[in-house]
Predict the structure of Solute carrier family 15 member 3.
Amino acid sequence: MLERAAFFGVAGNLVLYLNSAELKWAGEQASRAALVFLGASYLLAPVGGWLADVYLGRYRAIVLSLLLYLAASGLLASTAFPDGRSSFCGEIPSARLEPACPSPGCQYTSRATYCAPTLYAALLLLALAASSVRSNLTSFGADQVMDLGRHASRRFFNWFYWSLNVGAMLSLLVVAFIQQNINFLLGYSIVVGCVGLAFFIFLFATPSFIIKPPTGSQVSSMLKLALQNCCPRLWHRHSARDPPSAQLLPDQRLPQPGPSPKEDIANFQVLVKILPVMVTLVPYWMVYFQMQSTYVLQGLHLQIPNIFPNCPTNRSETLRAQGSIYKIPEAWLLLANVIVLLILVPVKDHLLDPLLLRCKLLPSALQKMALGMFFGFTSVIVAGILEMKRLEYISHNQTVSQQIGQDTYYAAPLSIWWQTPQYLLIGISEIFASIAGLEFAYSEAPRSMQGALMGIFFCLSGVGSLLGSSLVALLSLPRGWLYCPEDTGESGGLPGNGTLLEGGLERGCQLLSALTPGRRKWHIRLRKTGLEPKPSPLPTAWPPLHGPP
């Protein structure tokens, strides 16, 4: 929970911080840095899992990652006050006077980003630490309840995911508000405090942990077996350069510590069945991460109700609609999904799952993942229906203007609360697809590859996020469905200016929803391969939950 609060404390307003008057990064430079940070925080997850499996063990990997987290967050916080910036970055270069550029063909020279090496180093170190904690803390927590059976593991993943969203909500409510309305130094100091508190709590709880030593990883063995099966010619060419001892048959080799060659082959066969299941979630992540992009874009063109009436303007995000003034932190738009999860996870754990257990109808992890994909499909269908309804108002020139910051958006007279069903559905889909995916990756992975496979699970979610962003970027090109060259400002949002009001978002939602049925069919085919775990016997008593460390 504390680690997630720290992560969202960095990611929630990173673009706003880099674009602030203190650093003066251009908008595209700040957005690029935020994408690098978010992408690296997912794509580096297998590295931390592999190091834990081979060298460190999960406990030491988490401790070292939290120390790195603490140092990197401290470095980022030091850039939020003048003395720290001058120490790590030097003085900000004075702005050079540029000649006027009245003609359409001339170009301005782009200036170098101030403090870029320090900030990129801090962000990449933060991404490495966050990805390592994410991939190891999940499996380390599951180790604590593994002896209590599959049902205890399932409950652990439910509440582990719930605690992550508690941290996200606290960060978005408190830290994001402080960063936008007070200053970033105080906001990033809270981030450092969260990481430090998490580190000391983890150390103090050490005597109660079940700590397992590193068992070695079979990643290299799996890669060799994959090369041998997929590319036999390349394998023979590679093995011809190996020493004679490496070419002996498995029975002729001297015994080595760790899994035997037969165990390697058995684990490889399991891995061949696991990875396609995890890959089928990539299109789901493409749909899921639209919540942070196209759903927000749609919400900006719906009528936003009064949140904080009669508040004086400050440095915060300010919304003016129908003559009133409101302060809305930009990061608060992500709270809808978080609140849905906080409500539905306890309902599922305390009401739905026990009822299904008593009726012997509790679905397996694969069935839950397929159900989550269905709800994700339904969410974008609902978003597309809302978009078509919004366009009906626009076609009749029924719009209201609302100002967010310096930009004016012309919205349809539909309340943003009409987006509640699609956020509710995407939250339900996350409960089934993401939580069940974590449970599946941990329970079905070979013991020596649990950390690495947890990392691969999070890495694939990052791949889905990047593919979803690429899809949006592709659709935003000229002649694309989401091409909106003038979507903000006084002229933006009016029909005829090539804006979102002329349509296209509903076709983007239809394209995203088309990704789901195909992957569900593939998912059903994978269930027929025999990977579906057999249901464990029902417990005589509901096992107590050991909360996340």
Notes: The chain has a mean pLDDT of 72. The chain is about 65% helix and 5% strand.
